[in-house]
Protein: DUF1009 domain-containing protein
Organism: Aureimonas flava
Amino acid sequence: MSRADTERTGEALGIIAGGGVLPRLVAEAARADGQLPFVVAIADGIRSDWTPYESVKLPWSRTGDVFPILARRGIRRVVFCGTISVRPDYRSMIPSPRTLMMLPEILRMVRGGDDSLLRAVAGVFERRGIGVVAVHSVLHDVLTPAGSLTRRAPDKRDDLALRRAAHAAGEIGRLDVGQAVVASPDRVIALEGIEGTQAMLERVGALRAAGRIGRSEPCVLFKAFKPQQDERFDLPSIGRETIRQANAAGLRGIGLSAGRSLILEAGAVVEEADAAGMFVIGTSKTAEAEAP
Amino acid sequence: MSRADTERTGEALGIIAGGGVLPRLVAEAARADGQLPFVVAIADGIRSDWTPYESVKLPWSRTGDVFPILARRGIRRVVFCGTISVRPDYRSMIPSPRTLMMLPEILRMVRGGDDSLLRAVAGVFERRGIGVVAVHSVLHDVLTPAGSLTRRAPDKRDDLALRRAAHAAGEIGRLDVGQAVVASPDRVIALEGIEGTQAMLERVGALRAAGRIGRSEPCVLFKAFKPQQDERFDLPSIGRETIRQANAAGLRGIGLSAGRSLILEAGAVVEEADAAGMFVIGTSKTAEAEAP
């Protein structure tokens, strides 16, 4: 435990929690570090049970209430994590009074892709004196290391596919669209939009079943850090489900931006990938920037 | 009829035909011009009935046979048109002797996206003394004009969405992936990979039904010319089916690269769009290049 962590012992940490396994992992890590996690469930996170953690559920119409809630508990630091599949539609809801007060600020924010939205949200917190910390400053050992993590490493054709996918993923990331791309050595197969990685992988599986991907056309998934992204939130991530989905889509393996992406429950992820004969590899910034 | 056309009267034209309505429109136009169309059906085109035109069906394993077939008929000019949804998997087929002879050349070609594939195929024809002509040099009045074609024109928010979609479509086109993008004024919704425009529009419809697209989030489709593309083949195109699919996905309208995209059966397309209250607009090169 570093000195910074020690100083945080007993301090409250707000977890602005969407869906998926990540927010719970963050809460567990914060508690293990001696911090006091308080979960503010939003979006997909509202459907989860947050026991044993203290929590509140905030529908989009009550977004503005987050600040009095945090203030009442003396919370000065928050971490954003988890998936948000449905964006707020403020034009067709009845906001709480606090939310209504913030509505002009909120509506300006909703412009743009996920990354610009998250940066705007972070700004709203910071202007009110609440610090926004990165997931990996709470949840240690979750950043993807460089190099192959699995028994199987990419072969020459896989390397070509990884380079092609990484390059395309960087480009769509620059447009603040998705983070994920599936490619073969010959061509890009699928680009992630708002549907998310899981839906994209299901699409790849369907294309393969329909004969639209050759039997001898090895495909890989790459999830890339967006070049202009704030490293504190929405880093690309994979977990055990991603391995299962990628395997079902017939992929040979997965590449990630080393140091700027997350592997959730890495031990289980590598075990699952090894069992499926797949590779998982962290690649350097320079390798990603290269056109294939 | 221009002088060039007159000189072509009585001359044979090879139509290398994939799926969809385009190859038949090309054959009709060629015949109306006094040329003698001969259809070489490949890929998705093999499933069509080509009566009343002279035709031959070539599975991928017999690709190499196209040259003796054209030579026997004295055909010195071909036009490529129609969709190819399944790419050849030469590694797992038994090729005809002629195809086998060409296999090294063919396998080099299969590398890359659709555009690099088509350029390579055109090169193979040209090296054998066969000219490759553009669809719109046979089928006149099919190029998208600049400006709005429909009663409804895009409003200010639609314009924003069109700019966002056009910019993203140009970027993925540069990567030689898809040509089509769906966007709202706020963000990019979907990017076309190998699944094609129809499957992408079905995905957008499903995202809307699932509440992943806001009720007050107007979306548009843009199909863009790929910056590095050869204008002779695979220009982005729409037809009546595209209008129906876009309407089913809840889109407000469609934008296309003026002068570098095709509207098949334009009269019927505009009629169908007007009935659905949608816009169809051709936009200039400069408008596309701008970031939104």
